């Protein structure tokens, strides 16, 4: 069995019975010729779910990045080429700008004790009356 897409740019060939042709499944895309056609060949023992998953990935229409100079002219004529524009650099934050304009955080004046091992006598707490519940 051989199926071809309406545009003639992709197809599948499946042979499970004819002895004069190689057994297996072949997926193909692109114009005929070396370097212009992508082909994937599966043996007759390849599980059908693996062939189906590969066919789904093979026919995915998500754009793929390619160098224009690396495309064959026949393929470039069939492809929808969109130039890739590099993203804009991120907007600098105030923290990024501070070293450039010479603003420095205020320096501490003198020493500031952060903690101490010495304890001070606590003030006597006032006596609390008994609380009835």
Structure explained in plain terms:
The chain has 133 residues and is α+β, with helices and mostly antiparallel strands. The protein is 19% helix and 15% strand. The chain has three helices and four strands, in the order E-E-E-E-H-H-H. The protein has helices at residues 48-58, 73-78, 94-101; strands at 2-4, 10-15, 24-29, 38-42. The protein has a four-stranded antiparallel beta sheet with strand order 1-2-3-4, with helices on one face. The protein starts with a strand and ends in a 32-residue tail after the last helix.
Q: What does this entry show, briefly?
A:
The chain is an alpha+beta fold and 133 residues long. It has 3 helices and 4 strands; from the N terminus they run E-E-E-E-H-H-H.
Number of helices: 3
**What is the mean pLDDT?**
76
One letter per element, helices H and strands E, the order comes to EEEEHHH
Alpha-carbon distance between the two ends: 91 Å
What coarse outline follows from CA principal-axis ratios?
A: elongated
Given as residue ranges, the uncertain stretches (5+ residues, pLDDT < 50) are none
Strand order of the largest sheet: 1-2-3-4
Write the SSE topology.
Layout: E1 2-4, E2 10-15, E3 24-29, E4 38-42, H1 48-58, H2 73-78, H3 94-101
Antiparallel strand pairs: 1-2, 2-3, 3-4
Structure characteristics:
single chain, 133 residues, alpha+beta
């Amino acid at each position: 069995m051989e199926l071809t897409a309406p545009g003639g740019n992709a197809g599948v060939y499946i042979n499970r019975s004819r002895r004069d042709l190689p057994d297996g499944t072949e997926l193909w895309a692109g114009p005929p010729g070396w370097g212009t056609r992508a082909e994937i060949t599966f043996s007759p023992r390849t599980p059908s779910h693996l062939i189906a998953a590969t066919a789904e990935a093979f026919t995915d229409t998500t754009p793929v990045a390619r160098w224009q100079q690396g495309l064959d002219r026949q393929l470039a004529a069939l492809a929808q080429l969109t130039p890739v524009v590099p993203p804009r650099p991120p907007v600098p934050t105030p923290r990024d700008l501070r070293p450039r304009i010479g603003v420095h955080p205020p320096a501490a004046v003198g020493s500031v004790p952060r903690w101490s091992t010495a304890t001070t006598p606590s003030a006597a707490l006032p006596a609390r009356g008994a609380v009835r519940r």
